[in-house]
Amino acid sequence: MPELPEVETVRRTLAGLIVGRTIERVSVHLPRIIQRPDDVRVFEMQLAGRKIEDVGRRGKFLLIRMDNLVLVSHLRMEGRYGLYQSGDPVEKHIHVIFHFTDGMELRYKDVRQFGTMHLFAPGQELISKPLAKLGLEPLDESFTYEAFCHVIAGRTTKIKPALLNQEYIVGLGNIYVDEALFRAGIYPQSQANHLSTEQLRRLYEAILATLSEAVLAGGSSIKSYVNGQGEMGMFQHSLNVYGRQGQPCPACGQPIEKITLAGRGTHYCPECQPAGME
Ligand SMILES: [Zn+2]
């Protein structure tokens, strides 16, 4: 599943492809992708004639803003967008096609069919499902150390599940939580409310550094995605612990360990992230 840095990379790329284009009509081939409105024909009618003004993001949701309408799109496991000319052959698993007035088409492909689209009047998207209860946006300037402590510091849960909770902070998935905890030198099973001020500060800085580096890395390997070819998968990041169980820690050489925590595979270095705060 794409995590926040991948979705941010998709957002930037998609904005470059579709902002300024006007939708002539939309055809939906798999109605269950469309979650709102209930009637797919209404979805298609509402989008016809709209000009795309901006592509935003909230957590892992893309917000395609048009004149007086917002399309909220979640790629889930394997959803992806590609820009094509109208005559290009339509591949399998293309479920929604946005036909533009200039002869180009934005096609939504989703082999697993878990992706979703919701339409809202502007402003309504932020107070309605699925965006209403989302937490802090870690790449936004509103994500200050104080705001981070406000949602995390007093929790009586373990730190890793607290960081994964989308109602506290959005977009942090399994990979980046493991990487941020390693960078901060914090044992994943530590109780959130037992972390020292210094540990909280290190963790905050580690989240920012891990995500911003991943966004930069994501920007370099987006071309295959844009053309609708190749698989939507992890971009090339240098991972220190995730998926490296049994291999030497890049900092101290001890083997990386893997445990299951809150149902998720969790990777850490027992030397650099010592237990004792749980
Ligand atoms: Zn280590």
TrEMBL record:
Domain of life: Bacteria
Catalytic machinery residues: P2 (schiff-base intermediate with dna), E3 (proton donor), K60 (proton donor), R264 (proton donor)
Gene Ontology biological-process entries: base-excision repair
Entry cofactors: Zn(2+)
Cofactor note: Binds 1 zinc ion per subunit.
Sequence positions that bind DNA: H93, R112, R155
E.C. number: 3.2.2.23, 4.2.99.18
Residue ranges of every copy of the FPG-type domain listed in the record: 240-274
Keyword Ribonucleoprotein: no
Subunit structure: Monomer.
Main function: Involved in base excision repair of DNA damaged by oxidation or by mutagenic agents. Acts as DNA glycosylase that recognizes and removes damaged bases. Has a preference for oxidized purines, such as 7,8-dihydro-8-oxoguanine (8-oxoG). Has AP (apurinic/apyrimidinic) lyase activity and introduces nicks in the DNA strand. Cleaves the DNA backbone by beta-delta elimination to generate a single-strand break at the site of the removed base with both 3'- and 5'-phosphates.
Family statement: Belongs to the FPG family.
UniProt name for this protein: Formamidopyrimidine-DNA glycosylase
Phylogenetic placement of the source organism: Bacteria, Bacillati, Bacillota, Bacilli, Bacillales
